[in-house]
Amino acid sequence: MIMIIIIIVVVVVVILLLAAAGGLLYYFLTKESDQSSGGPYKREAVATDTPQCSQIGKDILNANGSAVDAAIAAMFCLGVVSMHSSGVGGGGVMLVYNRSLQEAKVIDFRETAPAQATRNMFKGDVSKSKKGPFIF
Predict the structure, then answer these.
(1) Residues within the annotated binding site?
(2) Is 93 helix (H, G, I), strand (E, B) or coil?
């Protein structure tokens, strides 16, 4: 019985030592690795699919533009550089925080189908979805 208690105590001590060592290792290793290769970001950051569009958003912020200005500029850039996945006519969701009002708002600009679109409008002829007046 005493041997079982000793084994349990040893196992608990080993687990605690490993947890403490892991915590210290995490603390000391993450200081340098947490820094972004682009520099420290304390107030804002811009991230898109392409470096060019991220840079445009960053330039807008550096010119005292708002976050919304930067997002719109970056989105227009993506419409040119990555038009197959984003751009005018697409949709999305944006969270905007107004510091002076201390208020966050969600702007939902999800894409919607035209009013005359139907569930079966391409049934039987899928090519209508690729060429002609229905492609938009």
Answers:
(1) 110
(2) strand
